[in-house]
Amino acid sequence: MTDDNSFVREVAEKKYEYGFTTDVQTDIIEKGLTEDIVRLISQKKGEPEWLLEFRLKAFRYWLTIEQPTWGHLKMPHINYQDISYYADPTKSKNKEPGEIDPELMKTFDKLGIPLEERMALAGTAVDAVMDSVSVKTTFREKLQEKGIIFCSFSEAVREHPDLVRQYLGSVVPYKDNYFAALNSAVFSDGSFVYIPKGVRCPMELSTYFRINARGTGQFERTLIVCDDDAYVSYLEGCTAPMRDENQLHAAIVEIIVNERAEVKYSTVQNWYPGDSEGKGGVLNLVTKRGHLRGANSKLSWTQVETGSAITWKYPSCILTGDNSQAEFYSVAVTNNHQQADTGTKMIHLGKNTRSTIISKGISAGKSQNTYRGLVRVAKDAEGARNYSSCDSLLLGSQCGAHTFPYMDIHNDTAVVEHEATTSKISEDQLFYCNQRGINTEEAVSLIVNGYAKEVINKLPMEFAVEAQKLLGVSLEGSVG
Amino acid sequence: MLQIKDLHASINGKEILKGINLNVQDGEIHAVMGLNGAGKSTLSNVIVGHPAYEVTQGTINFNGKNILTLKPEERAHEGIFLSFQQPTEIPGVSMVNFMRAALNAKRKYKGQEPMPAGDFLKLMREKRQIVELDSKLTSRSVNEGFSGGEKKRNEIFQMAMLEPTLCILDETDSGLDVDALRVVAEGFNKLRRPETSAIVITHYQRLLDYIKPDIVHVLIDGRIVKTAGPELATEIENRGFDWIKEEVGL
After folding, report:
1. Looking at this predicted complex, what is its ipTM?
2. What is the extent of the structural domain holding A320?
3. Residue A370 distance to chain B (closest CA, Å)
């Protein structure tokens, strides 16, 4: 039973279902990145002076630093002057202001994200973002009745400038890293959420990101503020057309969790992963971080990462509030030539803070899948606890799985546990399933979903079903 | 039911089966005996279509159909079941999900609707009791942490669920103590319908005390060298295999 026998012989590419493009008139600014471009973006969005200043500071800082190379990634050269930093598909002529191009509505319908409220998923409000602009946010009025703000980032800047100004860059400062600086300079749209004190958000909030235009990057920015005793569950989904070029996606998500508040943030990332030869695909370089400012606050990141040619993201938590609790649940699937370097950082500052890390990496084809995580316990963080479990599952012998768990403990009372396993779907397991009448594709899906169950179960019900299907589809053709 | 003609098969280029002929009629139980390395497990693996083995010559017909062109799962749907010598563990996949996938795959192949969840769970309960399989085991992952005896019982349980017409028991007695062997064998007998056939692969007589064969074959060096009634198994138990080797001039 040799590995190169029937098991993982060919890595055929399952057709990426979301690879279509939308033919819509799009206002794209010229390629390149200069101070003038930053000013132009700010001007197109009609931004106040303080925000332009924020952008310019970030841009000037970005110019002074280098792209990081520490990831376990073979990064293609990114020519930052060959990318357009702003594409607006809502600017087609001959339409009333506020009216949405039917082509855009159709696109989101096709993606399973109907923007007509009467057709929408029950209990989910959606902010739909294409390229650089938010197309529509559903259920806004209904949420407003409870004082909840859910709108595009641009609107938030116009309508709630004080809130935005207070929190923007407070969790991820523009100096945080190279891509954070880039995003801070050129970010376009994204979502803004504010849940007032004591309010439990009655529906799932979700943002759906779609890249459409060629030669552009997407630089969205999400800011979620959950005030004392409030609760929100938020979901992010992403897809892109199939293109033979790499497309850059450098986003920032900042979350602020105040006293006794709770935020659940779930991501199902299915950007175009490139073809089976590794051509094209989205470069997903994202900084996500939550600040558990309040005592007894909770934040939970759940991510199912199946897409992108390269994924570089570490949704992290800063546990400042005493007794705050943070969780990171992740499934990262890589197939063909995909590369993922993903994990989390848990920074324990407050007393009796707890964090849990459950990471499941699944690698197939010729892909490379890395878990990279940091658990830091500060000097004053009495009684901090962390439990980490990082498992890797390999399909075949040409892929790689790597684990880099960093620990930085400065308090003797800390209890930090780390477990890691690596396993492989064996030919024996597949044959055992075959002999019972289960074909190989189904067997892989069964095994992978069993393996990822702990994480999938953390997703909201409807998305869990989607994620399950996605895991099966992403690995289709990965076993010969 | 099963006709094997002049079957040659090899693994990694090495020929293991060198011309097997075997006919199994409806309802018959055939024992295949032989020393380690004679090709007994290869024979069972080739019948169920294990991809590591290459058939270089000969045919296998099952209910009139040439099954050599069928995939392993299709052979299973046609009604062939292998009780593995060493059942594989599949962590993370519960027995319930596994059996459900298997049963519904077969139903789909037969053009039937998936079995409703309630009916399915009832069926699990019924069949489980026949092989005295603990209900805890069916809620665990497939074979994970099962003892040797539990794994074998689990094989017979799966057989009960899938109702095959040809069962191949590949050294089901290996690693079982007498009590476990009795439970497994009796379970098999209870589950067997009059038309169900079986090929029982074993070194020893002891399994055949419980599962009585109609015909006994001796496999030496990739060939069936002797075929007789059940008395042959007793004779092997008493005299070993050497006399057969001498008799056929090996």
Report:
1. 0.95
2. 27-427
3. 22
